[in-house]
Protein backbone atom coordinates (compact mmCIF):
# COMPACT_ATOMS: atom_id res chain seq x y z
CA UNK A 1 0.00 0.00 0.00
CA UNK A 2 2.87 2.33 0.80
CA UNK A 3 4.34 1.79 -2.70
CA UNK A 4 0.97 2.60 -4.25
CA UNK A 5 0.76 5.86 -2.30
CA UNK A 6 4.29 6.80 -3.33
CA UNK A 7 3.48 6.15 -7.00
CA UNK A 8 0.35 8.30 -6.65
CA UNK A 9 2.46 11.12 -5.18
CA UNK A 10 4.96 10.85 -8.05
CA UNK A 11 2.24 10.78 -10.74
CA UNK A 12 0.45 13.76 -9.21
CA UNK A 13 3.73 15.67 -9.00
CA UNK A 14 4.53 15.03 -12.68
CA UNK A 15 1.04 16.18 -13.64
CA UNK A 16 1.32 19.39 -11.59
CA UNK A 17 4.77 20.16 -13.06
CA UNK A 18 3.41 19.69 -16.59
CA UNK A 19 0.42 21.89 -15.80
CA UNK A 20 2.72 24.66 -14.54
CA UNK A 21 4.51 24.62 -17.91
CA UNK A 22 1.52 24.53 -20.26
CA UNK A 23 -1.06 26.46 -18.21
CA UNK A 24 -0.95 30.05 -17.03
CA UNK A 25 -2.24 33.43 -18.18
CA UNK A 26 -2.33 31.80 -21.61
CA UNK A 27 -2.91 28.06 -21.96
CA UNK A 28 -0.65 26.34 -24.48
CA UNK A 29 -1.62 23.19 -26.34
CA UNK A 30 1.44 20.88 -26.18
CA UNK A 31 0.25 19.06 -29.33
CA UNK A 32 -0.01 22.20 -31.48
CA UNK A 33 2.96 24.39 -30.63
CA UNK A 34 3.68 27.50 -32.66
CA UNK A 35 7.05 29.21 -32.78
CA UNK A 36 5.90 31.75 -30.21
CA UNK A 37 4.61 28.97 -27.95
CA UNK A 38 7.99 27.24 -28.06
CA UNK A 39 9.76 30.45 -27.07
CA UNK A 40 7.36 31.03 -24.18
CA UNK A 41 7.84 27.48 -22.93
CA UNK A 42 11.60 27.12 -23.28
CA UNK A 43 12.62 30.68 -22.39
CA UNK A 44 10.11 31.50 -19.64
CA UNK A 45 7.85 28.76 -18.36
CA UNK A 46 10.11 25.69 -18.33
CA UNK A 47 13.03 27.28 -16.44
CA UNK A 48 10.56 28.88 -14.04
CA UNK A 49 8.87 25.52 -13.39
CA UNK A 50 12.24 23.83 -12.89
CA UNK A 51 13.34 26.51 -10.41
CA UNK A 52 10.05 26.14 -8.52
CA UNK A 53 10.45 22.36 -8.45
CA UNK A 54 14.06 22.59 -7.23
CA UNK A 55 13.14 25.05 -4.49
CA UNK A 56 10.21 22.93 -3.37
CA UNK A 57 12.39 19.81 -3.35
CA UNK A 58 14.95 21.56 -1.17
CA UNK A 59 12.39 23.00 1.25
CA UNK A 60 10.34 19.82 1.60
CA UNK A 61 13.37 17.64 2.29
CA UNK A 62 14.96 20.24 4.58
CA UNK A 63 11.80 20.49 6.66
CA UNK A 64 11.67 16.72 7.15
CA UNK A 65 15.33 16.60 8.19
CA UNK A 66 15.15 19.62 10.46
CA UNK A 67 12.09 18.41 12.33
CA UNK A 68 14.02 15.23 13.06
CA UNK A 69 17.26 16.94 14.07
CA UNK A 70 15.56 19.34 16.46
CA UNK A 71 12.82 16.90 17.46
CA UNK A 72 10.50 19.85 17.02
CA UNK A 73 7.38 19.35 14.85
CA UNK A 74 7.08 23.10 14.21
CA UNK A 75 10.61 23.46 12.80
CA UNK A 76 11.08 24.47 9.18
CA UNK A 77 14.15 25.39 7.10
CA UNK A 78 13.82 29.11 7.79
CA UNK A 79 13.88 28.78 11.57
CA UNK A 80 17.69 28.58 11.49
CA UNK A 81 18.11 32.12 10.16
CA UNK A 82 19.64 30.92 6.89
CA UNK A 83 16.88 32.48 4.80
CA UNK A 84 16.99 35.79 6.65
CA UNK A 85 20.75 36.01 6.11
CA UNK A 86 20.25 35.35 2.39
CA UNK A 87 17.40 37.87 2.21
CA UNK A 88 19.53 40.54 3.88
CA UNK A 89 22.48 40.24 1.50
CA UNK A 90 20.19 39.93 -1.53
CA UNK A 91 18.33 43.09 -0.50
CA UNK A 92 21.65 44.87 -0.05
CA UNK A 93 22.53 43.98 -3.62
CA UNK A 94 19.14 45.07 -4.95
CA UNK A 95 19.05 48.35 -3.06
CA UNK A 96 22.65 49.22 -3.92
CA UNK A 97 22.09 48.54 -7.62
CA UNK A 98 25.31 46.56 -7.93
CA UNK A 99 24.93 43.87 -10.61
CA UNK A 100 28.49 42.91 -11.52
CA UNK A 101 27.45 39.38 -12.51
CA UNK A 102 24.27 40.19 -14.42
CA UNK A 103 21.36 37.85 -13.68
CA UNK A 104 23.56 35.81 -11.35
CA UNK A 105 24.15 38.78 -9.03
CA UNK A 106 21.00 38.27 -6.96
CA UNK A 107 21.31 34.50 -6.37
CA UNK A 108 25.04 34.86 -5.77
CA UNK A 109 24.63 37.52 -3.08
CA UNK A 110 21.80 35.52 -1.53
CA UNK A 111 23.90 32.37 -1.39
CA UNK A 112 26.80 34.25 0.20
CA UNK A 113 24.46 35.52 2.91
CA UNK A 114 22.99 32.06 3.47
CA UNK A 115 26.45 30.53 3.63
CA UNK A 116 27.71 32.93 6.29
CA UNK A 117 24.44 32.70 8.23
CA UNK A 118 24.86 28.90 8.29
CA UNK A 119 28.38 29.25 9.68
CA UNK A 120 27.25 31.69 12.38
CA UNK A 121 24.27 29.55 13.43
CA UNK A 122 26.40 26.42 13.42
CA UNK A 123 29.07 28.05 15.58
CA UNK A 124 26.47 29.14 18.14
CA UNK A 125 24.90 25.68 18.13
CA UNK A 126 28.24 23.90 18.54
CA UNK A 127 29.20 22.97 22.09
CA UNK A 128 31.38 20.29 23.64
CA UNK A 129 32.29 18.76 20.33
CA UNK A 130 28.82 18.57 18.83
CA UNK A 131 25.70 20.41 17.71
CA UNK A 132 23.10 20.90 20.42
CA UNK A 133 19.55 21.12 18.99
CA UNK A 134 18.29 23.64 21.57
CA UNK A 135 21.22 25.98 21.06
CA UNK A 136 20.93 25.65 17.27
CA UNK A 137 17.22 26.48 17.41
CA UNK A 138 17.63 29.50 19.70
CA UNK A 139 20.58 30.82 17.69
CA UNK A 140 18.55 30.56 14.50
CA UNK A 141 15.57 32.39 15.98
CA UNK A 142 17.77 35.14 17.42
CA UNK A 143 19.70 35.68 14.19
CA UNK A 144 16.46 35.68 12.17
CA UNK A 145 15.14 38.57 14.24
CA UNK A 146 18.44 40.42 13.90
CA UNK A 147 18.77 39.95 10.13
CA UNK A 148 15.14 40.84 9.41
CA UNK A 149 15.36 43.92 11.62
CA UNK A 150 18.33 45.17 9.61
CA UNK A 151 16.51 44.24 6.40
CA UNK A 152 13.40 46.22 7.34
CA UNK A 153 15.61 49.17 8.26
CA UNK A 154 17.25 49.10 4.83
CA UNK A 155 13.91 48.89 3.05
CA UNK A 156 12.34 51.64 5.15
CA UNK A 157 15.07 54.15 4.28
CA UNK A 158 15.07 53.27 0.58
CA UNK A 159 12.81 55.08 -1.87
CA UNK A 160 13.74 53.65 -5.24
CA UNK A 161 12.46 50.77 -7.34
CA UNK A 162 14.93 48.48 -5.64
CA UNK A 163 12.76 48.54 -2.52
CA UNK A 164 9.75 47.12 -4.37
CA UNK A 165 11.93 44.53 -6.07
CA UNK A 166 13.43 43.50 -2.73
CA UNK A 167 10.01 43.13 -1.15
CA UNK A 168 8.76 40.94 -4.00
CA UNK A 169 11.87 38.78 -3.80
CA UNK A 170 11.51 38.35 -0.03
CA UNK A 171 8.02 36.94 -0.57
CA UNK A 172 9.22 34.46 -3.18
CA UNK A 173 9.16 36.06 -6.62
CA UNK A 174 10.03 33.49 -9.31
CA UNK A 175 9.73 35.87 -12.24
CA UNK A 176 13.53 36.24 -12.53
CA UNK A 177 14.01 32.50 -13.04
CA UNK A 178 15.99 31.54 -16.13
CA UNK A 179 18.29 28.76 -17.30
CA UNK A 180 21.43 30.42 -15.92
CA UNK A 181 20.19 29.92 -12.35
CA UNK A 182 19.47 26.21 -12.64
CA UNK A 183 22.83 24.32 -12.91
CA UNK A 184 24.49 25.49 -9.69
CA UNK A 185 21.21 25.34 -7.76
CA UNK A 186 20.60 21.81 -9.03
CA UNK A 187 24.06 20.63 -7.95
CA UNK A 188 23.80 22.08 -4.45
CA UNK A 189 20.28 20.79 -3.86
CA UNK A 190 21.07 17.31 -5.17
CA UNK A 191 24.20 17.22 -2.98
CA UNK A 192 22.18 18.19 0.10
CA UNK A 193 19.39 15.76 -0.76
CA UNK A 194 21.82 12.88 -1.29
CA UNK A 195 23.52 13.61 2.03
CA UNK A 196 20.22 13.75 3.92
CA UNK A 197 18.82 10.58 2.34
CA UNK A 198 22.06 8.70 2.98
CA UNK A 199 21.81 9.63 6.68
CA UNK A 200 18.07 8.92 6.96
CA UNK A 201 18.60 5.78 9.03
CA UNK A 202 20.67 7.78 11.51
CA UNK A 203 17.96 10.44 11.60
CA UNK A 204 15.41 7.77 12.54
CA UNK A 205 17.63 6.87 15.48
CA UNK A 206 18.18 10.50 16.50
CA UNK A 207 14.43 11.07 16.65
CA UNK A 208 14.24 8.34 19.31
CA UNK A 209 16.81 10.11 21.48
CA UNK A 210 20.57 10.59 21.61
CA UNK A 211 21.20 7.74 24.04
CA UNK A 212 19.34 5.21 21.92
CA UNK A 213 21.03 6.46 18.75
CA UNK A 214 24.42 6.06 20.42
CA UNK A 215 23.53 2.55 21.60
CA UNK A 216 22.67 1.65 17.99
CA UNK A 217 26.19 2.57 16.91
CA UNK A 218 25.66 6.07 15.52
CA UNK A 219 27.95 8.99 16.33
CA UNK A 220 25.29 11.47 17.44
CA UNK A 221 27.37 14.62 16.99
CA UNK A 222 28.74 13.56 13.61
CA UNK A 223 25.34 12.56 12.24
CA UNK A 224 23.67 15.73 13.45
CA UNK A 225 26.44 17.84 11.89
CA UNK A 226 26.12 16.08 8.53
CA UNK A 227 22.36 16.51 8.55
CA UNK A 228 22.71 20.20 9.44
CA UNK A 229 25.11 20.65 6.51
CA UNK A 230 22.55 19.03 4.18
CA UNK A 231 19.83 21.42 5.41
CA UNK A 232 22.13 24.42 5.06
CA UNK A 233 23.08 23.45 1.48
CA UNK A 234 19.49 22.94 0.34
CA UNK A 235 18.06 25.99 2.10
CA UNK A 236 20.83 28.30 0.89
CA UNK A 237 20.43 27.10 -2.69
CA UNK A 238 16.64 27.43 -2.51
CA UNK A 239 16.70 31.00 -1.18
CA UNK A 240 19.31 32.05 -3.70
CA UNK A 241 17.19 30.69 -6.56
CA UNK A 242 13.91 32.44 -5.82
CA UNK A 243 13.73 34.20 -2.49
CA UNK A 244 12.19 33.20 0.82
CA UNK A 245 9.17 30.94 0.53
CA UNK A 246 7.84 29.70 3.82
CA UNK A 247 5.47 26.99 4.98
CA UNK A 248 6.55 24.26 2.55
CA UNK A 249 9.15 22.87 4.94
CA UNK A 250 6.64 22.97 7.79
CA UNK A 251 3.54 21.40 6.29
CA UNK A 252 4.76 19.02 3.57
CA UNK A 253 6.61 16.59 5.90
CA UNK A 254 3.52 16.40 8.14
CA UNK A 255 1.27 15.59 5.18
CA UNK A 256 3.71 12.93 3.98
CA UNK A 257 3.95 11.34 7.43
CA UNK A 258 0.16 11.42 7.64
CA UNK A 259 -0.10 9.18 4.56
CA UNK A 260 3.03 6.99 4.55
CA UNK A 261 4.40 6.88 8.10
CA UNK A 262 7.47 8.27 9.87
CA UNK A 263 10.37 6.34 8.31
CA UNK A 264 12.73 9.08 7.11
CA UNK A 265 14.16 6.82 4.42
CA UNK A 266 10.82 7.34 2.69
CA UNK A 267 9.68 10.62 4.23
CA UNK A 268 12.66 12.68 3.01
CA UNK A 269 12.51 11.80 -0.73
CA UNK A 270 8.69 11.87 -0.82
CA UNK A 271 8.67 15.23 1.00
CA UNK A 272 11.09 16.49 -1.64
CA UNK A 273 8.82 15.34 -4.47
CA UNK A 274 5.69 16.76 -2.87
CA UNK A 275 7.44 20.02 -1.96
CA UNK A 276 8.43 20.52 -5.60
CA UNK A 277 4.89 19.83 -6.79
CA UNK A 278 3.38 22.11 -4.15
CA UNK A 279 5.54 25.08 -5.14
CA UNK A 280 4.87 24.48 -8.86
CA UNK A 281 1.15 24.57 -8.09
CA UNK A 282 1.54 27.73 -5.99
CA UNK A 283 3.49 29.42 -8.79
CA UNK A 284 0.85 28.43 -11.35
CA UNK A 285 -1.88 29.93 -9.17
CA UNK A 286 0.15 33.06 -8.46
CA UNK A 287 0.78 33.87 -12.12
CA UNK A 288 -2.73 32.97 -13.31
CA UNK A 289 -5.38 34.04 -10.82
CA UNK A 290 -4.86 37.83 -11.20
CA UNK A 291 -3.07 37.97 -14.57
CA UNK A 292 -1.26 40.04 -15.70
CA UNK A 293 -0.47 40.84 -12.04
CA UNK A 294 1.57 38.09 -10.38
CA UNK A 295 1.19 37.08 -6.75
CA UNK A 296 4.51 36.00 -5.17
CA UNK A 297 4.61 32.27 -4.60
CA UNK A 298 5.43 32.67 -0.92
CA UNK A 299 2.08 34.37 -0.33
CA UNK A 300 0.22 31.64 -2.20
CA UNK A 301 1.91 28.84 -0.23
CA UNK A 302 0.88 30.48 3.03
CA UNK A 303 -2.71 31.04 1.89
CA UNK A 304 -3.05 27.42 0.72
CA UNK A 305 -0.99 25.74 3.38
CA UNK A 306 -2.09 27.32 6.63
CA UNK A 307 -5.80 26.35 6.48
CA UNK A 308 -4.91 22.79 5.46
CA UNK A 309 -2.42 22.50 8.29
CA UNK A 310 -5.08 23.68 10.77
CA UNK A 311 -7.49 21.12 9.27
CA UNK A 312 -4.97 18.33 9.78
CA UNK A 313 -4.27 19.58 13.28
CA UNK A 314 -7.97 19.34 14.10
CA UNK A 315 -8.51 15.91 12.49
CA UNK A 316 -5.40 14.22 13.81
CA UNK A 317 -2.45 14.86 16.10
CA UNK A 318 0.03 15.74 13.36
CA UNK A 319 2.43 17.11 15.95
CA UNK A 320 3.60 13.59 16.75
CA UNK A 321 6.69 12.88 14.66
The fraction of residues assigned to DSSP E strands is under 5%
In total, the number of strands is 2
* CATH class category name: Mainly Alpha
Q: Identify the quaternary structure here.
A: single chain
Helix-strand pattern, N to C? HHHHEEHHHHHHHHH
**CATH architecture classification name:** Orthogonal Bundle
Order of strands in the sheet with most strands:
1-2
CATH homology superfamily name: ABC transporter involved in vitamin B12 uptake, BtuC
Gross geometry:
globular
State the separation between the terminal residues, measured CA to CA: 21 Å
> What's the alpha carbon Rg, rounded to whole Å?
19 Å
Mean pLDDT: 84
CATH T-level topology: ABC transporter involved in vitamin B12 uptake, BtuC
Largest sheet: 2 strands, antiparallel
SS summary, helix count: 13
Number of domains: 1
- Helix content range: over 70%
Structural class: mainly alpha
Low-confidence parts lasting 5 or more residues at pLDDT below 50? none
